[in-house]
Design a protein that fits this description.
Layout lengths: L3 E4 L3 H13 L3 E6 L7 H5 L2 E4 L6 H5 L2 H11 L3 E3 L9 H10 L2 E2 L4 H7 L2 H10 L14 H4 L1
Parallel strand pairs: 1-2, 1-4, 2-3, 4-5
Helix pairs in contact: 5-6
Length: 145
């Protein structure tokens, strides 16, 4: 189990994660850009760290470096991305692995595989899983019509 989790998201997504962590006795960390300084999610966490630079709120939530730095500053041993933002980013999962922080989500290798639909379908077929019929990947427009 974790002792402290940083939630790399905002709003209702973060609040629900904080509630679940609280029920499990896990400390919580919020991150927020300047523009979200009055957001409820930062008040619901045990700790909150400002990330990014003013004028770029979405960029702040997408900053792998900023999220990792906040987690290290807070002493968080896990990062939960919620959904959207960094949830499908293999760079965050890999950075967590390098830093000894648990990424609450798929491994970087899985995110890399599933980030490319053609490779994901090929891997599913190779594993013997049923997949919907579709065209093979092609750059030829006539073939795809």
């Amino acid at each position: 189990m974790f002792s402290k989790v940083l939630v790399a998201n905002r709003g209702e997504i973060a609040i629900r994660a904080f509630r679940a962590a609280y029920e499990l006795g896990i400390g919580t960390v919020a991150v927020f850009p300047y523009e979200d300084r009055n957001s409820v999610h930062r008040l619901k966490a045990d700790e909150a760290y400002q990330i990014g630079e003013p004028g770029h709120p979405v960029r702040a939530y997408l900053s792998v470096e900023g999220i990792i730095e906040a987690a290290k500053s807070a002493g968080a041993d896990a990062i939960y991305p919620g959904y959207g933002f960094l949830s499908e980013n293999p760079d965050l999962a890999a950075a967590c692995a390098r830093e000894g922080i648990t990424f609450i989500g798929p491994a970087a290798s899985v995110l890399e595989l599933t980030g490319n639909k053609a490779r994901a379908i090929a891997a599913a077929k190779a594993a013997g899983l049923p997949v919907l019929r579709s065209s093979e990947p092609s750059a030829d427009v006539d073939t795809l019509m």
